[in-house]
Amino acid sequence: MDKNKTNPQNLTTQVVQAADCIFERLRSEISRIGSGGRSNSHIFFIFGASGDLAKKKIYPALWWLYRDGFLPEHIRIIGYARSQLTIEKIFENAKKFMKIQDDEHEIFEKFVSINSYINGSYDNKEDFGKLNNEANKLSKQESAHRLFYLALPPSVYESVTELISLHCRPKSPGWLRLIVEKPFGKDLESSNKLSTHLSKFFTEEEIYRIDHYLGKEMVQNIIVLRFANQILSRVWNRDSIAAVIIIFKEDIGTQGRGGYFDEFGIIRDVIQNHLMQILSIVAMEKPNSTKGEDIRDEKVKVLRSVLPIKPEDVVIGQYVGDKDSKDPERQQGYLDDKGVPKDSTTPTYAQVILSINNERWAGVPFILRAGKALNEKKAEIRIQFRDSPGGMFEEDASQQDSNHKLARDELVIRVQPNEAIYLKVNTKRPGDMGFSIEETELDLTYGQRYEGVKLPDAYERLILDVFMGSKINFVRSDELQEAWRIVDPILAEIEKKNIPMIRYKFGSFGIREAFDAAAKHGYIFRGTYVWKNERSATIANEEQTKAENKK
To answer: Which site from 274, 339, 512, 540 is most exposed, i.e. has the minimal number of CB atoms within 10 Å?
Structure first.
């Protein structure tokens, strides 16, 4: 037996043991950094505790952190909202999202016991005074460290943040950390207004602007892939890379939330934040260290190098119902949502093609594509390499490509679902007596390779970062400003109806014109598509979709 061959079972055991070791170090770090060496009492406030985000993400993440021993020993959690509720009702709503195992009920009851709920307004100083008194009573001191999570609509941000600063600050030596959810404004002007307001009451060090995509395992892995592997570092530039495409797809529509979505649209909701953050990590120069400020400095530098987007490099669309579907939801189009105006010009699908004006990336298109009501749920990054020079295998490639060209190598990072990294390469077809070429994948699917290793939820990871005071995975104000600078002119063009709105069917693969535009800029997607007609979207070949989902 080859002594150098790794036994997958042994590898999994080693990974689990390594993870346990890391977790133990993190627990120690929480005790050291979280307390700041002065106060060991913490209070975590959830504003908007009665809402969807709280019940689906925040309470479950706090439960998992508590269960795994990552929360500080002395902690209380206070939910706050306008609704007349009890903590029992809060947990009744949230429990189904917490994935409580049969042997965890005892520790879960302990977790419930550190929670409480207070109702009050978002603009009344007396209510915030009562909240402060309750916090002091629960922690038995006025200097407990305080973390405030704003799971709130943007319309109340200003009043809530001002009242928190004026009436709920801990006494020294306790620190305050404010977690702010997107959207961070609706455009550059409103974003700057919010940033200016926050700066009156909080330091930049106290503000944690959360983009949950920065907490996803595969997004965080980009930095390691790029800078810990010499084989990739050498080719991560315009000489080797032909195009980069970052894709976000959802297989659901607005599901009755059209009124909220219509105020923002897919560009504000996904491209300006999630996809722009991924772009900055993919394209940034090597930071001096893994410290948060070093990484965020490089992200800002590359965003500043993004050139203005040309209107002709933008494709937008709205989904319409598929009347042939047996699913009632898929029969409904975006404009059928009761909360959406019948003359809405808000896109549910968009593709923008960006250019970065620096030495590394000049001439390489960065394609950001996002859409709702598509054929599948998927988020991935595709780094497509340039064609192999020379024509040595042109004839052998003829069975693979009618143009007698070899398929391009492509590094694919699957963010969700089924986290994976795979490299598409050309190989000799097995068993062939000549040089027939076949495209295949070097596949690292996390669920198979690291079976038994738990990947933290994005919110779980990011909330832990806030306790530790790590800002590496949070958005700085200048990052935010640059992201809005990039998309603002295009949003203005859409509002003026200068960019045509293309309709696509619920459950389709997307918009044909978007794929054509990407191809025009040099991105070649190899797949089986059967477009229904020249100017509309199509449903992709089902077998192709299944194959992609397995990767």
So the answer is: 339
